[in-house]
Amino acid sequence: MRLADVLAQVRRWLRPPRTLRVTRAGRTYIVLTMGIGLGALNTGNNLLYLVLGVQLATIVASGLLSEASLRGLQVRRLGADAAFAGEPFVYRWAVSRRRGTAFVLTLAETHPQLEGSATLALLRPGEEVVVRGRLLAPHRGPYALRGIRVTTTFPLGLFSKGRVLEVPGELLVYPRRIPAPRDVLPSDGGRGEQTARRFRAEGDGDTAGLRALRDGEDARRVHWLKSALGGKLLRVERDVEETRSVVLTLDVGAHGPALERSCEEVAARARALLAGGAAVGLEAGPDRLRPDQGPRHERLLLGALARAGLQEGAPR
Amino acid sequence: MTGRGAYRLRLALRDLGAASAFLAMSLSGQVPSWTAALFVATLGLALLDVRPFARHVRESALALLGSVLVLWAMVASGHMDLVVAACACAALLTAQRMLSGHGAAVDQQVALAGLLMLSGGAALSADLGFLPCLCAYTLCTSLSLALGEVERAAPAGAAPPAAPSLRAAAALTGVALVGGVLFFVAFPRLSWNLAARRGGNSFAGAVVGLGDRVRLGGSGELKSNPRIVLRAQLDPDPGVDTLGAYWVAYRFDAFDGLEWRGQARPGRPLQRLTLARGSPGALSQHIELLPAYGSRTVVAIDHPVQFSMATAQLPSYSVRTALVPVGDESVRLDGAASGFSYYASSVLRGEPASDDAATRARRLALPPRLDPRVPALARELAGNATDPAQIARRLEQRLQQRYRYTLELPGPVEDPLADFLFQRRAGHCEDFATALAILLRTLGIPTRVVTGFYGGERAASEYVLRAGDAHAWVEADVPGGVLRLDATPAENRSAASATLLGWLLRAYEALEVRWVHGVVDYSFADQVTFLRGVGSNPARKQLPAAGLPWAWAGTAATLGLLGVLLFLLLRPGPDEAQKLGDELHRLAARVGLLAKDRWLEELPSTSPAVPQQLRRAVSRYLEARFGTRPLARGERRALLSAVRDALRAPRPV
């Protein structure tokens, strides 16, 4: 290792990148300490010098302890189950470190538009703790996360020392949740299609009856017990459940608040339709999703709506 | 510890920290008694977790404002000192906050108000008790604030991790105190001295109060009081531990049967007062009369010939003062102050007897109602001696032999002298001195009773006198000069060592001397001496004052070392499983199987490059660390040995 590297490492060790904020009580403490210092200088009172020394040493010791809490931390994002714009959501981080106990850690994302944090009282060495906090994102869309800010006010609450851990990541925030319109099918903004096809005997619903198996029919439909009892191959006929299949269309040509409003409305319709048992698809410019059901598909729909109209590579 | 327990502990620590700060302030004895009563009541309520102001914050704040206005009015009208009023304000503010709430913000406000009280204590008092108060305040406040921080960060309803945070805060306190001492020693004392203020009376107040009269028949409390009343630096330094000197304060001629009384009138104030011609071998003394002395009569080793450079220590500053001779009886300091300092010069040879007829008549005067048995006793004790000096010595010896020393006196009696000589046959130094003086006068030998101190105990580079060293003896005018006579038995002349309490008090006073020298009077000159001493052999130092900074540095270093040792001993060490994990991590990282910032669990388990022994050891580590199967004795070593062997062997790429 070159000498310059060693020196740079020593410099980094001695002067790690930290932020320091003085709390309200800390400001009063500093003012009092300065007052005591002035009093000591004015009067020559040695006991005031002693008090001043203890005050200053307390500040230094407090800085050492807070630094000890921040060194060697490892944080990874566990993310959120679902994050909707304009409402708080639970976000999780996993914090750990190999050596030393850390106290009173507050975790927050460095993204300027993400509000909220999580607090951890104690982190023992070698232990990974999942910390949950409530964040708030103002708009939908992908948020490019660059770092996690870890701060501590331990031990005295006079100073808040922080560091930023460079952990790149992304948080996808779904459109704001609004109440679904009374008529969940759009009148013109999307392509609403209601299908009521009923293919008797080819469905997966309730049992409708038994009949003889014809040639060429799927043997998997045979009811083997009844066939054995009847002495001929009988097949089960099941009802086909009525399924509404809807493809919602989003006009990505709109801009600004109109686009946001449109996204929120389509998302509300999609959620309402999915909750009503319909299969929902989406056409948002070049992005298309086939009609489908289920929570996973709902997340795909919401994700597509979250990204709709936002240029690729220019996240929030 | 439960959440409720941590909460109670935090508040108790907070309130005890505030109480320590208040005690530091109260040591001065200047805090108004009503403030003290109010604060004690507040502390009691707070410790019982009764906080009546929590629902009446506005009303209590208004009451506080009213109190502050009253205090301000008292300062403006000259009824109260400004600093004392500020201290009382700080105490009231702290009390109001203590009874107002229990949140983290209130904790911080109580701590900051406590800091104000502590500063007030530093301004008002120079008492040794300030140091433990400062330590207690720092410790309690740090613990309380740290506990408050983790309590705030803990999930609602969950118990905060009290023990580890308290350990960390205790370590912080240790560092803060050691750092404070180092700052104190090293920070240059470049004082502007714009508003210098001297530490005032201590809490105990004055205990001696030598005056212009000595009344017989009082109680004997002084002999058991070890409070230091005088400090003296002698030049040349005798270098002995016990000086055994007579320190003169007052000389009395007139005795009316009940008390000795001064009769001379004060003379003209002088900056330098010469009583007699000095000599090349004169003993120079720099004397400091402490507040416990409680008198303005100067004291010096017998026989003083000159006094000069008197300084009065006022609450806010020191000022030069004058010396006032009071006939040939005493010398007083001009003005009132809590303490004085001055220089005195004494010669150890005897002084000539007075040949003035009026003076002789005064020193031969007998009380008007002298018991007729007294002259007869004098003649009996003198026996066949004829020389005045011989007679005086014989009477001195007889009194020492035949009379007993006691402090248990009956109080006022009609004829104290007769009571001592013929009834009780026991008394204290004033009885012995009075008896000897009057017996000698009945035989025609002029005498005076002298009050002052006997003794002198070495403390650091100086000598101290205690209240219990107060003493009385006799000077007789005999052919050839003045003869000092002391009829009190030798073993009872200086401070009596009586009870355990007395011993403790003496130990406290010895500490206080060091405190005053090492802390209260620590100066820029001491710092320079200290810096000169750094790097050189301390044993060769010429200036004794430099010993204290060395002691400070040594104490700080020892405390720091003890702190580190305690930390190393008390911190929970890694267990066997953790040691195994650390070593496995190191080995895997060294051969490039695992990045340094990755966890051991992330070791690629299917890679052929990872030896089977390493996988087994990691699996065993996880079992022992997080499972329920601890490592057997010697297992860690065996596993590590196998892993090392496997890593040394060639591995597939």
Q: In percent, how helical is the residue content of chain A?
A: 25-40%
CATH class of the largest domain in chain A, anyone?
A: Mainly Beta
Uncertain regions spanning at least 5 consecutive residues of chain B: 538-547
Percent strand of chain B = 15-25%
The structural class of chain A is alpha+beta
Write the CATH architecture name of the largest domain in chain A. Sandwich
Indicate the low-confidence ranges of chain A by residue numbers: 192-201
Instruction: Summarize the main sheet of chain B.
Output: 12 strands, antiparallel
- Domain count of chain A, please report it: 3
The proportion of strand residues of chain A reads: 25-35%
Report how far the terminal alpha carbons of chain B are from each other.
Answer: 53 Å
So what's the overall shape of chain A?
Answer: elongated
- In spatial order, strands of the major sheet of chain A run 1-8-7-4-5
Rg of chain B, alpha carbons = 35 Å
Question: What does this molecule look like?
Answer:
The complex is a heterodimer of chains A (316) and B (653). Chain A has 316 residues and is of the alpha+beta class. Chain A folds into 3 domains: 1-173, Immunoglobulins (Immunoglobulin-like); 176-196 and 242-316, no CATH class; 207-238, no CATH class. Chain A has 6 helices and 13 strands. Chain A has helices at 3-14, 24-43, 46-70, 224-230, 256-275, 295-307; strands at 19-22, 73-79, 89-97, 102-109, 118-123, 128-135, 141-152, 159-173, 207-212, 234-238, 245-250, 279-284, 287-292. In chain A, the strands form 4 sheets. Chain A has a 5-stranded antiparallel β-sheet. In chain A, strands 2-3-6 form a 3-stranded antiparallel β-sheet, with no helix packed on it. In chain A, a hairpin with a 2-residue loop joins strand 12 and strand 13. In chain A, helix 2 (24-43) runs antiparallel to helix 3 (46-70). Chain A is elongated. In chain A, 31% of the residues are buried. Mean pLDDT of chain A is 86; it is low at 192-201. With 653 residues, chain B is α+β, with helices and mostly antiparallel strands. Chain B has 4 domains: 3-186; 213-503, no CATH class; 522-570; 576-648, no CATH class. In chain B, 46% of the residues lie in helices and 16% in strands. Chain B contains 18 helices and 19 strands. In chain B, strands 2, 3, 6, 7, 8, 9, 10, 13, 16, 17, 18 and 19 form a 12-stranded antiparallel β-sheet that branches. Chain B has a 3-stranded antiparallel β-sheet with strand order 1-5-4, with no helix packed on it. The model of chain B is unreliable at 538-547 (pLDDT under 50). Classes of the chains: A alpha+beta (316), B alpha+beta (653). Chains A and B meet through helix 2, helix 3, strand 4 and strand 5 of A and helix 5, helix 6 and helix 7 of B.
